[in-house]
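Late entry, written up from scratch paper. The run itself happened at the end of the previous shift, but nothing got recorded in the book at the time, so transcribing now.
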Amino acid sequence: PDPVVAVGDGWLEAEVLTVDRFGNVQLAAGGATLSGLSPDLVIGGVKARRAQTFADAQQGEMIVYEDSAGRVAIAVNGGRAVVLLSVRPGDIVRVAER
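Output as recorded:
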């Protein structure tokens, strides 16, 4: 079956596709879905921000961005998003406006 992706007013939910060796989490949602969200987000109770690059974030800050594959990705500047969120491929992640 196709991976889960749902988009609503101020939120998106998507299945975790992969986790890379740096602990960045790639979601099934296309990067264009981020354009409908504000810059201030929350994921699993953790504050995050929509960003273009890691330089847009403070050390230890969680960011949500469009990765090189055109998918929504979650990362922590200088950390591992997979550890902070405790997710694995197949899990559903909700990204919502704060």
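The first strand starts at residue 5 and ends at 8.
(Scratch paper discarded after transcription.)
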